[in-house]
Every structure is written in C-alpha cells, then in structure tokens.
Amino acid sequence: MKRSFSKKDFIFTVLFVGIVLSGTLFFGITMLSDQLHGDVNDSVIGEHDTGVFEPVYRAVYGNSELDDIIKKVSYALFHEIENENFIVGSDGFIFEIRSDDYDYLLDYMGETPFSDEELQTIASNIGKRRQMFESAGKCYILAVIPNSVRIYSDCLPLHYGDPSDNSRLSRLSTLMDSDPSYIDLTRALTEAKSRGYVYNNTEDSVNALGAYVIYRAVADRINDGAVLCGEEDLRFYTHLTPGKSATRRAGVADIVKNRTVSYTDDYKLTFKVGSRDGDPLVYTQTKRNFVADVSGKSLVIAVDPDAGMYQLMPFFSNAYGYVTYVSSVSGMTVGYGGDTVIEFVTERNLASLIDMNDIALNDIEEVNVSEKT
C-alpha cells in the first residue's frame, strides 16, 4: 500500500531543502567574497579574461557595491566578517583578536601571563611611584580600565568561556588587591551593565556611561570631599553611528553600526580647556551653569592614550577646581600641582607598567589643562 505524504514528511523536506540552499548560499557568498577581497585590479580580472566576457568579470570582481552587498548578506545571515582578526560576538559586539604586539584572545585565555618576576616588578614600581608622590604631599591612584572582551565575555561565542584567572589583569589584581592605590575597574563596570551599555560595541573603549562609572569609582576611592555629579543629574541616550576602529579595520564600518551612548545637554560643561607649555594657556570652551558646586581640590590625571581622555574629562573637570591632563607620568608630574595624581592604564597596555619608572622627563608628548570657570 502506498504511504501518503504526511506533515512530518513535509517538514523534513522543507528542512532538508533549507539546509541545502543555505549551504549553497554560504559557499557561494564565501567564494565570491574571497574573489572580491583579493586584489581587484586588471591582473585579477585578466585571469578571467575571455575577450567578450571581460566586462562581465570586471562588473563582478571590480564592483565595490556588490562587495558591500556580499558583506552585508554574510554578516546578516551568517554572522560572519571576512577578516580572521575579528570575532563576531552577540548583541552587536565585534572583538579584535590582535592589535600591534598585543593579543587580546591569548591574554583572555591566560596564554600570555606575566611571570612572577614581572608581577613583582610591577608591584614594586607602583609602590615607588606612590612614595614619590606621597613625599610631595600628594595622593596617588593607579586605575586599570579592562578590555571590553572581559566586561562583555558573555557576548563571546560560548566555547571561549570566562576570562582566565591566569590572564595578566587577573593575576595583577590578585596581587594588588589590598593596595589602596590600585583600582581594578572590572567590578564597577560589570555591575553597571544593568544600567546600560558601558562600552562601544565596535571598539575596545568605554562610552559616556562607562566613563561616568569610572569617574565615580575613582572619585569615591579618593573621597576628598569633592561634590560629585550623581547619575540622577545625567540623562544618557543611545543612538546608532558608523562603526568605530575595530569595524573600520575589518572593513565593515558602514555595515556594523556602533551603539553610541552619550549624555544630553542637561549636563552642563563649566570648565575651560587649553594646552600647557610652561605657563597654562587656557581658552574658554563653554560657560554654563552646572548641577553641582565645584570642589577646591585639584587633580593631575595621566591617561593612557588608549583610555579615552576626552570621555573622562567632562566628569572630572566639572567636579574639581583644576585638572591637568598628561599623557604619561614622570618626575615632572610632581611639579604640576594637584592634590591627587590619578594614572589610568588600559588592560591591553599593562606591560607598560614593567618599565613605568624608566620614563624620561621629556617623554610627555602632550599636556592638557582644564580649569573651572
């Protein structure tokens, strides 16, 4: 007796056809994308030159619009980027694997840890720096801004797991846990995720909310009586902008949008900002009323170039009477004034702490000054 075509048969047939079509589409896009990401020039087209069909090949292999379509389809359907140096995470995150001589992924997995000797050297250097500033009557704080992949490890593919206890930051923070001059900002930023996104999704950098969280964590540690801006004084909003540095390097900045978090104009900037070369040269940036009274305290903030000084500046400069921003710390920093010296370093640049006391006095490339009006 001939069996009828059941609903179950229909479902399996649809699934099978879907799998076949998906596979065909995937490999077709991959092959075409490989061609498009090669050297799109006359030599490549010449390989396919068959006389009358040359315009067809040129239209395919030299068509940037088609290339963008392939990238969009590949990202939308298969969650892939045709660049092996990037990981496509969930929730729109793009994670870079290697940058210059630093490997985010190997460090995350604990494959490139600091040696015991290196850890002791870093701890000793931090102690020496603290003593240098304390002898000048200043408080010293070293604050580490973690990589975005550490804070958003839940957005990585599951097989990567959690950050390793053997990673550089994990080992350093274990060693320095009881040192009052050391702050690992991982906990503060992780806890703040319940209030909104704290990092850009297309770059290893904090957004405005993340910068605010850093400001409060450090200012609360200093606890010097400054009148601080509370989160109730701010209104953050999220908007989509072109992808930042990671997607630009991956070639998909126009495809993968950055989820940018900013604060509204309700947060009034009331400081002047300028450059310092000898005597401070200050020009007015804005003169508006702020929600809090200014503290008479002053700071020196040394910001790792990767840490995003201009995200941090509005919060610190609005709360303190005078803030000097430098690109690195040296003996010269003692002479800049300031009741407290705060040094920010990113997780990816932790190795710089090994030689932190060997910085020459003329290595400070740029000094920025902000002053309350």
Which features does this protein show?
single chain; 373 residues; alpha/beta; 2 domains; 8-stranded mixed β-sheet; two-stranded antiparallel sheet; 12 helices
Q: What does this protein structure show overall?
A:
By secondary structure, the protein is an alpha/beta fold. It folds into 2 domains: 7-77, no CATH class; 99-372, no CATH class. Helices cover 36% and strands 18% of the residues. The strands form 4 sheets. An 8-stranded mixed β-sheet has the order 6-5-13-11-12-14-9-10, with helices on both faces. Helix 1 packs across helix 4 (64-78) and helix 10 crosses helix 12. The longest helix is centred in the N-terminal third of the chain and has 30 residues, at 7-36. It is globular and about 80 Å long.
Summarize it.
With 373 residues, the chain is an alpha/beta fold. It has helices at residues 7-36, 42-47, 54-61, 64-78, 104-108, 116-134, 148-151, 168-176, 186-192, 208-222, 245-250, 309-319; strands at residues 86-88, 94-96, 98-99, 102-103, 139-145, 182-184, 236-241, 258-263, 271-277, 279-283, 298-303, 322-326, 340-346, 367-372. Helix 10 crosses helix 12.
